[in-house]
Amino acid sequence: MTIVATTQDRKQLRRLAERIRSRRTTKLFLKQAVDRKLILDAIEVARWAPNHHVTEPWHFYVLGSQKIAECVELTRIVVTEIKDAKMGNFKADSAAAIPGWLVVTCSKSDDELTQREDYASCACAIQNLMLYLSEAGVATKWTTGPVTRDNRFYALLDADPDEVMVVGIIWYGYPKITPEQSRMDVSKIITETD
Ligand SMILES: Cc1cc2nc3c(=O)[nH]c(=O)nc-3n(C[C@H](O)[C@H](O)[C@H](O)COP(=O)(O)O)c2cc1C
Q1: Which of 6, 23, 121, 126 sits 20 to 30 Å CA-CA off 105?
Q2: Residue 122 in domain
Q3: pLDDT tens-digit profile of 100-110?
């Protein structure tokens, strides 16, 4: 049986497709703070991601200003150690300009397949979160800079690196500049079979 989409259905599909396409990783944000309630709502929606065995492996840290300041200083230290003080100061200054910080962790598993699938679920949850915020006019950047792999970062979050892994920092805020992006021709990534 062929199910025919109504005009209204097609309009909603086009709108959804445009939302997915137009979400952009954004680096420059306005100073204006984002309402905490919107972020909590986004997290509530994010966790409806597909999740094998419904392990719910994610945890979301919504950072306040004190913790953000500590993350900025740790960024300065970590990048200075890896590169040099000039780069450390540059990265810290850029980080200090970000109005909103979320950290997403994934619970670790000794079982390799569970770990892989749990990480995949966390990535899906982050995409849900970013799309929800995008619909609300809030831009994001998922970052996995060196600070996210540093044990001192786990200590800041009071997270145990034996128990969880940091999937990323999600910076968020109202966009100052929205970059352009492109993707290769879609035919290059599709194989249709009999
Ligand atoms: C797992 C993951 C880690 C990422 N880490 C970084 C990062 O450390 N720095 C950065 O500039 N962008 C990072 N990004 C964002 C990508 O660079 C971005 O998605 C890509 O440039 C495509 O742009 P778009 O998100 O606007 O489509 C990350 C994205 C993912 C999925």
Answers
A1: 23
A2: yes
A3: 999 999 999 99
